# Entry
Amino acid sequence: MIYNFFSFLLYIIIFITSIFNKKIKVFFAKRVCSVKSIEKGNYILIHASSLGEINLLDPFIKKILLDETKNIIISVVTDTGYNQALNKYSSSKVKVVYFPLDVNFLIKKMFKNINIEKTIIVETEIWPNLINYAYKNSQLFLLNGRISDKSFKSYFRLKFYLKPILNKFKYLIMQTEDDKDRIIKLGARTDKVYNFGNLKFDINFDDYTSCLLFALRTLHNEIWIKEVVIKIHECTLKNINIPIDRKMLISTIEQNKLGIKDLEFYKNSMWSDLKDRKSV
# Structure
């Protein structure tokens, strides 16, 4: 009830703001009206928040489409994710829509107007109204779920509220054993939780540009991780109370710094390649 009150209040605020702001008006219209264009039928609803999730889902969606009786709705939050989904799936069997605001009456209307047989939420998107109506009207799954240490600490404070939400899922498919353990600690039933690995390692890109974009995203994360490791090592080096092989640690730090230079070189060369392709 509290969530629905505040989500409806946010809806009213966005609606009023949209009257005076063109950008907000476009944002609002996309998310309130997009589902209206879908004709009635039986669908699998896949909620993928952004560009990254759309790229991850490619092999998964193609496997579903091998069954000619299946129709898919992909709902997204971001403009980049929406455009990427449109570019990837020209089939009449795949509809791409903006995710309606998670307001009770909008989500209720979506499930009333469209027969959704299965709802698949990608990477631990917690939308209470979507989860509630998906549970009542379809089979509900979490795919490629993940919970970081930081998110786990925040979620754990809400464990009392999250537990009944998590147990509305038929299955929760997590990326790692750590993710599996965390979601169980948040209240998910152990017989519903599985670790099937990360979908990103199943990506089969159809074009070189998509491959470049994914590689750049992954490289960015690797550079960040290496920088964090260097800082940790440097802090360890400064602590005289920790018994360590100082020469070995200094050598490791230098190797990591060289590794960052190598990664930066490849990142820059890929950016150049990507820009060249876009200018053609």
Notes: The two ends are 54 Å apart (CA to CA). The mean pLDDT is 82. Residues 236 and 243 are 10 Å apart (CA to CA).
